[in-house]
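hey so i finally got around to running both of the ones u sent me last week. sorry it took forever, my laptop kept dying halfway thru and i had to restart like 3 times lol. anyway pasting them below in the order u listed, first the sequence line then the structure token line for each. didnt double check formatting much so if smth looks off just lmk and ill redo it

first one:
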Amino acid sequence: QVQLVESGGGLVQAGGSLRLSCAASGSIFSTNTMGWYRQAPGKQRELVATMTSGSSTNYADSVKGRFTISRDNAKNTVYLQMDSLKPEDTAVYYCNVQTWLFRKYDYWGQGIQVTVSS
């Protein structure tokens, strides 16, 4: 079992920055992907950014050039640096860990609110 604890959300003005953190504890196998998804009111959850254990990254087109994902493998922590925030970035952000050993294991954090005011 893996537990995910998110922090760093809040309210920020448009153009500002926030940094989200997600600390994972439990059984994370060496092959894994850590990342962030978000869900705005009335919309489906969508991918924001992911980073594999091999350091490959994937970003949503809407955040490319503004958001940066990173991870500290020694701490099992993934970060999301969000710059040049826009009101449309307002959403609940969820940390996600996928790890594989014979099968896929998929874990989600409880979600953290990010609100960008115009």
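and the second one:
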Amino acid sequence: QVQLVESGGGLVQAGGSLRLSCAAAGRSSFYYPVGWFRQAPGKEREFVAGITASGSGTEYANSVKGRFTISRDNAKKMVHLQMNSLKPEDTAVYYCAAGSYTPRENYYHYWGQGTQVTVSS
């Protein structure tokens, strides 16, 4: 069992930055591929970014390419999502999930509870 805990969400003005973190709790190691997803009110959950277990490979949604960067520190069992040039349309609850690094949700086995990101215009 993998417990994932997100942090770092909040309220930011358009053009600003936030750094989300995903911590794997209760484990001595964390060598899973990880993805970030988001869900805005009234919309389906969508893939944002993913990273392989080693960190050597990443994938991004077109809507965030060039603005968001996913990274990880396996020694600290952490995965981060650096979000720059934020837009109001980035407002959503952001979730990290383990098991894959691709957009296919059914490949992910473990999900965090989510952290709210609100971007004001």
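quick thing i noticed on the 2nd:
The chain has a mean pLDDT of 96.
anyway thats it, ttyl
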